[in-house]
Amino acid sequence: MRVLVAGATGAVGRLLVPLLLESGHQVTGISRTPKGAESVRGQGASAVQGDVFDRDGLRRIVAAAAPDAVVHQLTDLSGADGEATNRLRREGTRHLVDAAVAGGVTRIVAQSISWAYAAGEGRADESEPLDIGAPQPRGALVDGLRALEDTAAVMEAAVVLRYGVLYGPGTWYAPGGAVAAALAGDPSARFLGSIEADLSVSSFLHVADAARAAVAALDWPSGPVNIVDDEPAQARAWLPVLADALGVPAPVATSGRQDWARGASNALARSRGWRPGYPTWRTGFAAQGA
User: Fold this and answer.
1) What is the pTM of this model?
2) Sequence-ordered list of residues with C-beta below 8 angstroms from that of 248, at least 6 positions apart, any chain
3) What is the domain range of residue 74?
4) How many domains does the structure of the chain reveal?
5) Residue 275, pLDDT above cutoff 80
6) Could you tell me the CATH number of the domain that includes residue 248?
């Protein structure tokens, strides 16, 4: 299969490209910079420099690559800029999908997140609604995700991967990342979220498992799929483990809880044959520095 990867040099994309090649696919990666494009070529794939906000340029890229499928791994989180990422999800996805449709592409695999569900009891599954109408700033995040998912869904085959909180190389949770800096008390650290050891529940996902899911999803039927590990956990449980792995102080436990923060179920992904190589953050956090 000919696969075009948008976001080929991101935390997931840089692991995804070699996995696609190992699976026998022909891969073209898009990068915003010449350095990024050269990195993709160094992995053995074709590469092109491009900007998803350049609507006409993106159409030319897709037409030249003539892919059978597009994989959307676009984010703009390196600067902890939520609005920049929301713009990518809204406008970038629209341009990518329009270019794909114009080029006769019928399949897309797109990155979303698993903590945008409305409040409820227990782990959220894919049948449950997103938290539409949530107060800001969460409302902007959910609206951006809904725009991404709705836009992707116009394609004949659209699989939306609702990833857990990503950790591993290149993420905020890796050694030297934004979370480590914030926990260490760095006043200049930028991080989109609070760092409290409270009762809120999160589902995590190693970036290697995210990449493996994207490869598998090329053969999955349309619709959203939670891609998370096996152990959703309260912040007061996972934060001390992360802090220990990072060698930084753990925050004092508190009693608060976000009612929407309840983790997600990976039962659907497992029914399709996907299994997390890092089934729990308990061992995965420590493995980040291995």
Assistant:
1) 0.95
2) 180, 183, 184
3) 2-287
4) 1
5) yes
6) 3.40.50.720
